[in-house]
Amino acid sequence: MTHPTRALVDLSAIRDNVRLLAEAAGRPVMAMVKADAYGHGAVPVAKAALEAGASWLGVAFADEALALRAAGITAPVLAGVCPPDTDFAAAIAGGVDLGVGSVGLVRAVAAAAAAKGVPARIHLKADTGMSRGGQTRDGWPALVEAALKAEAEGAVRIIGLWSHMACSDEPEHPSVARQTAAFAEMVGYAERAGVRPELRHLANSSAALHLPETRWDLIRPGLAIYGLNPAPALPDPGLRPAMTLTSTVTVAKRVPAGSGVSYGHLYITDRETTVALVPAGYADGVPRSGSNVLEVLAAGRRRKIAGRVCMDQFVLDVGDDPIEEGDEVVLFGPGDRGEATATDWADAVGTVSYEIVTRLGGRVPRVHTD
Question: What are the entry keywords (predicted)?
Answer without folding.
Answer: Isomerase, Pyridoxal phosphate
